[in-house]
Specification:
Layout (H helix, E strand, L loop, with lengths): L37 H13 L4 E9 L1 H16 L7 H12 L7 E3 L6 E3 L5 E3 L1 E3 L2 E3 L2 E2 L7 H16 L5 H4 L4 E4 L19 E5 L3 E6 L5 E14 L5 H16 L1 H7 L2
Parallel strand pairs: 4-8, 8-9
Antiparallel strand pairs: 1-11, 2-3, 4-7, 5-6, 9-11, 10-11
Helix pairs in contact: 3-4, 3-6, 6-7
This protein binds oxidized coenzyme A (CAO).
């Protein structure tokens, strides 16, 4: 596929990390025991249940060069309409567009894994790092939303997450999840599937890296790693790989994404 020329942009230098101002607990020199409660208690329950799932891991590099330029233009347009626009709305829409062809990845299984339900709605969950802890609200019916509508909904969920006010409805009914750990840092991750969902993807940080062009010249490209986990009891590795290839193709060629948009 033809890709847009690299964008003239300075590579971000490795940032100097400022340590957090407050470290809690323990008090220096003293052990401290406290009950596990609230959102962390919910995390114990979900993650313990997740341990019964045998995951299949699949990793790939995504050339984001064209999308970096595309998003730079859209970001200002969205801002003019009062909406902050990151890469997530595009990642989420591309997931939904690819799920259409691989519906098993948008399914759920019952506790004993005896029945599988193909979900009609694409309710895409996003791992969110909030002051209360890890929460995974979801954007409902992504298959029927425009990319701008997804961005607005993401803004709403982020504001509620920051305020500790996400509703039960926002937090339930997810059918597939994404975890953008790259907004904090890192490359690869091993995301944990949230039962009863069967797949999740983690996104690394977009980095300026050298790559070869079609004339074997070294060029600067913007690369992001994706790490998928799927429930290997019901999802074949090849299905995950084919889904990832389609998702990757939408991100690497935003024009093809527009072509298939509903
Ligand atoms: N690489 C490079 N830049 C990225 C990026 C990535 N992977 N992801 C986000 N960014 C950029 C955004 O584009 C934005 O840039 P601008 O200021 O230029 O617009 C900036 O980082 C801040 O983005 P954001 O974090 O506010 O928004 P988002 O939509 O990308 O992500 C959310 C939203 C909720 C996913 C994110 O805030 C978050 O909480 N991430 C952590 C998820 C997490 O904890 N996962 C682990 C779960 S398991 O414990």
């Amino acid at each position: 596929p033809r890709l847009a020329p690299p964008i003239a942009q300075k590579a971000t230098p490795t940032p100097v990390v400022t340590p957090p101002r407050v470290v809690t607990p323990p008090v220096i020199g003293q052990d401290q025991t406290e009950p596990i409660k609230g959102i962390r208690k919910a995390m114990v329950k979900t993650m313990t249940a997740a341990q019964s799932i045998p995951p299949f891991g699949y990793y790939d590099d995504i050339d984001m060069t064209a999308l970096v330029g595309f998003r730079r233009d859209i970001k200002q347009l969205a801002l003019d309409r009062g909406v902050k626009f990151s890469y997530m709305p595009v990642f989420i829409k591309a997931v939904s567009m690819a799920l259409k062809y691989y519906p098993i990845l948008n399914s759920s299984v019952d506790e004993k894994c005896e029945n599988i339900t193909y979900k009609a709605a694409h309710n895409i969950g996003l791992a969110m790092d909030t002051k209360d802890g890890l929460l995974v609200p979801n954007i409902k019916n992504v298959q029927a939303l425009s990319i701008f509508e997804i961005a607005s909904e993401l803004n709403r969920l982020q504001q509620l997450g920051d305020a500790g006010k996400l509703s039960t409805s926002d937090l339930s009914g997810g059918t597939f999840s994404l975890s953008n750990i790259g907004s904090i840092g890192g490359t690869y991750a091993r995301p944990v599937i949230l039962p009863p969902e069967v797949a999740i993807g983690a996104l690394g940080r977009i980095q300026a890296l050298p790559r070869f062009d079609e004339n074997d010249k070294v060029v600067k490209r913007y690369i992001m790693q994706v790490s998928w986990s799927a429930d290997h009891r019901v999802v074949e590795g090849a299905t995950m790989a084919r889904f990832s290839n389609l998702w990757k193709s939408y991100l690497e060629n935003p024009t093809s994404l527009i072509l298939d948009l509903k």
